[in-house]
Write a structure and sequence with these properties.
Blueprint (H helix, E strand, L loop, with lengths): L1 H36 L3 H4 L14 H7 L4 H33 L2 H15 L2 H15 L5 H25 L3 H9 L4 H12 L1 H16 L3 H6 L7 H6 L2 E2 L2 E2 L1 H21 L1 H8 L7
Antiparallel strand pairs: 1-2
Helix pairs in contact: 1-13, 3-13, 4-5, 4-7, 4-10, 5-7, 6-7, 7-10, 8-9, 10-14
Length: about 280
């Protein structure tokens, strides 16, 4: 018995060591980015590079935030990501609900087409969108960029919401209809509160798809709707890339996503475990 306990503790210790190693390897690039953002401008381009700087300074942050267009790019990124997330949810929720509740052959074909669309390279969609938005007169606007980002997040949003709605028994809808609810009323008053965790998960993925997107932002924006990833990529000096300002702005750009994840953490966990309690 003692031998089993010892082996169990040893296995647990090995598991924790492996988890710590994986976490360290996964998180090291971000930690290195943070440490670099607090180095002096000369140390950020030093060869060989060092992990820790000789002194702690906020000079890179002051330089990054003092550049023209940085604050505006943060606003553009936020507006675009929020619009894209809202559009994705507004379209994905009823589509996924219809697929799971009616279970028609057309619905199965539709969700398969959505998966195929998710596999299409972004550049294939981005190039025609440039001329389309220009003809519509909405080129270089946040709404146009949000629509473009929705083409990336919507297929995944439909797939995620379909899996979450599948975990909700049909009996809940039937009970709501017996109480006088319409189909949409049952969705709004009964089903959506049950899958609120799933909606939070889907919103996170849709928001991240827009927040981190680079190609569409590069193709579809010039000045007015330029997002922060494009601004970061344009940080250059006569001597090359301005690594100090780039890392400082990248660190700041990660803060909203981290805060959003922490705020929605409880809902995310509930959404990820929703399928485990089906029936």
């Amino acid at each position: 018995m003692n031998g089993l306990v010892v082996r169990g503790k040893t296995a647990r210790t090995i598991l924790w060591v492996l988890l710590a190693a994986v976490t360290l390897l996964y998180g090291f690039p971000f930690v290195y980015l943070l440490l670099t953002s607090f180095k002096t401008p000369l140390e950020t381009i030093a060869v060989p590079a060092t992990v820790f700087g000789s002194e702690f300074t906020l000079e890179n942050y002051a330089s990054a935030l003092g550049r023209e267009g940085v604050v505006a790019s943060f606003i553009n990124s936020t507006v675009t990501a929020v619009l894209s997330t809202v559009i994705s949810l507004v379209l994905a929720v009823p589509a996924a609900y219809a697929i799971t509740r009616y279970r028609t052959p057309g619905g199965q074909v539709f969700i398969l087409v959505a998966l195929v669309c998710r596999m299409v390279p972004a550049i294939v969609v981005g190039v025609p969108l440039v001329s389309l938005f220009r003809d519509l007169g909405i080129a270089d606007t946040s709404i146009a960029l949000a629509i473009a980002h929705t083409t990336l997040s919507l297929p995944l949003s439909i797939w995620l919401m379909t899996s979450f709605f599948d975990a909700v028994p049909d009996e809940l809808d039937e009970a709501a209809k017996i109480d006088g609810c319409s189909r949409l009323g049952a969705l709004r008053r009964v089903v959506l509160p049950v899958v609120s965790g799933g909606v939070a998960v889907t919103a996170i993925f849709a928001f991240l798809a827009s927040w981190n997107e680079f190609l569409f932002s590069l193709l579809l924006t010039a000045v007015r709707a330029q997002t922060t990833p494009i601004v970061i990529a344009n940080f250059q000096t006569q001597f090359g890339l301005d690594w100090g300002s780039m890392t400082a702005l990248a660190a700041l750009y990660s803060i909203p996503v981290v805060l959003l994840t922490l705020v929605l953490q409880r809902h995310i966990v509930a959404g990820l475990t929703l399928g485990a309690v089906k029936g």
